[in-house]
Amino acid sequence: MFTGIVQSQAEVISINIVNELCRLVISGEKSLIRSLELGARIAINGVCLTVVEFSEFGENKAKIAFDVIDETLNVANLGALKLQSLVNVERSLKIGDEIGGHMVSGHVHCQATLIEKKSTETNCALFFECDNKWMKYILSKGFITINGTSLTIGEVNKNQFSVHLIPETLMRTNLGTLEKENHVNLEFDQQTMTIISTIEKMKLT
Predict the structure, then answer these.
(1) Which of 10, 15, 152, 168 could be a cystine partner for 28, CB 3.0 to 4.6 Å?
(2) How far apart are CA 33 and CA 8, in angstroms?
(3) According to the model, what pLDDT value does residue 53 have?
(4) CB count, 10 Å around CB of 198?
């Protein structure tokens, strides 16, 4: 499990796809591998991936490798990553950790497309378009996870929604570098999905 509080960004330094299996290697702060073990889970752009290899990389850097299957590449935006792409990184939640965001599973439901970006000195508003079948789970003032970042939903209109980012979020995550037509990973709040699905089933009985 994760909280949607991105700890750092990391750079993609290797992508190797063989027989529809992608070996993804990232490089980030040395602290990323502190107490890390093989088989541990790390969220990369909100996707829960299993660590298959890690080591120190240079003086103050570390590199971590993951194997990504074709289903994950199709559902999430990891398939569009290139060398030097920056990804959001969050280590898995430990018992006793503060939950600053909301409970996140790391299972991406779909992608959304950035259609507009409005920035000022103190605020950045991002407007996304999403497949209409998912919009029932996107509620104003509700939780959503975008590229692994826990955010509060702003306005919702038909198949579009917005979020507002403070400078700290822009600095810590890769959301500030998004450009129009870029795709992001979405994970919807599980409680919201459960409630809506239950209500739908009750209406059918």
Answers:
(1) 10
(2) 12
(3) 97
(4) 10
Give CA–CA dist 30/24, Å, rounded: 18
User: Is it the case that residue 156 has pLDDT exceeding 90?
Assistant: yes
3-state secondary structure of 26: strand
Q: What is the pTM of this model?
A: 0.93
- 139-to-5, 38, 153 alpha-carbon distances in Å: 20, 38, 7
In CATH terms, is domain 110-204 a member of 2.40.30.20?
A: yes
| Tens of pLDDT, residues 129-154 | 999 999 999 999 999 999 999 999 99
Fold for the domain defined by 8-91? Elongation Factor Tu (Ef-tu); domain 3 (2.40.30)
CB 131 within 8 A of CB 159: yes
Burial of 45 (0-12, 13-18, 19+ CB in 10 A): buried
173-196 mean pLDDT: 95
